[in-house]
Design a protein that fits this description.
The protein has about 270 residues and is α+β, with helices and mostly antiparallel strands. It folds into 2 domains: about 170 residues, no CATH class; about 45 residues. The chain is about 40% helix and about 30% strand. The protein has 7 helices and 13 strands. Helix 6 packs across helix 7.
Length: about 270
């Protein structure tokens, strides 16, 4: 495994290239536009208050523009996640939403097939309590391509952590879809922000042809069960002891929150239990 400079020419010899779906972004754009038009029509032809209809339609029209902008970016050549070549595979862990930024200095992951011990398709079902600490549950179905590596690559972890710290505006990139932990390289195929095509089974079959052990598994993690009270109490105890950062780290690990969500959760749950 090595980190190599970004170069679009590397894709020319690829057997298969996997990208974020353009059709999904276009579909959302069309949906938001229809809702905006429907609200204006309702405000004109029915008893629905016209000022409210105009305000709501403007909001949905802005969502339409954002989705259409994402659609245009998804059409660019920078939109690809995984490329499988004859002797190796390439991973692009930079968001296509940041394709307007200079590509100079960006790196790709080049992974030889002989460095891969296994490949599996993992359907991960995670249920958590609400971010506010209430009783509401949130369930997410994530599909992940997990590559088991034969040895550790410390430099990879450093580069990925550097990438995740980059921001779009005031928020972290929502398309940070590659992670590395304990000799496993995980690529998010499906989640609320990612929709990679073609299907994950295509990648699994290609890797299987290269002699890599492949499998399909399902993992269910219910963090809204009775054990949640233990996690919440640990977070509250840490916060009361003045160990706020440790409480935030625990919340991120337990509930898969980003930093902002974890801070909000720690604050809300501590206030609630006082």
């Amino acid at each position: 495994m090595e980190l190599i400079p970004y170069d679009d020419g590397l894709l020319e010899s690829a057997q298969k290239v996997y990208k974020h779906s353009s059709a999904r972004n276009l579909g959302f754009s069309f949906l938001f536009l229809c809702v905006a038009i429907g609200l204006i029509t309702a405000g004109i032809n029915s008893d629905f208050p016209l000022p409210m209809a105009i305000f709501s339609s403007i909001m949905f029209f802005l969502l339409c523009l954002l989705s259409f902008n994402a659609f245009l970016k998804s059409l660019r050549k920078e939109n690809w996640v995984l490329a499988i070549r004859e002797e190796d595979l390439l991973l692009n862990f930079h968001s296509y939403l940041k394709s307007h930024e200079p590509r100079s200095g960006l790196l790709l992951i080049k992974l030889l097939f002989r460095d891969i011990d296994s490949a599996k398709s993992v359907k991960k079902i995670v249920t958590t309590s609400s971010m506010s600490g209430g009783s509401n549950k949130k369930t997410e179905n994530n599909l992940i391509l997990s590559l088991g590596l034969k040895r550790k690559f410390p430099g990879l972890q450093i580069e990925l952590e550097k990438n995740i710290s980059k921001r779009i505006g005031h928020k972290k990139s929502q398309h940070y879809f590659v992670s590395y932990k304990e000799n496993e390289l995980n690529i998010v195929w499906r989640d609320p922000y990612a929709w990679v095509t073609p299907d994950i089974s295509s990648a699994i079959n290609l890797l299987k042809k290269e002699g890599i052990f492949t499998s399909t598994t399902s993992e269910t993690q219910d963090l809204s069960s009775e054990d949640i009270s233990v996690v919440e109490q640990n977070i509250i105890d840490l916060n009361r002891q003045g160990k706020v950062m440790e409480a935030i780290i625990l919340a991120r690990k337990a509930y898969d929150f980003n930093l902002t969500e974890a801070k909000s959760y720690v604050s809300n749950i501590s206030e609630k239990k006082q």
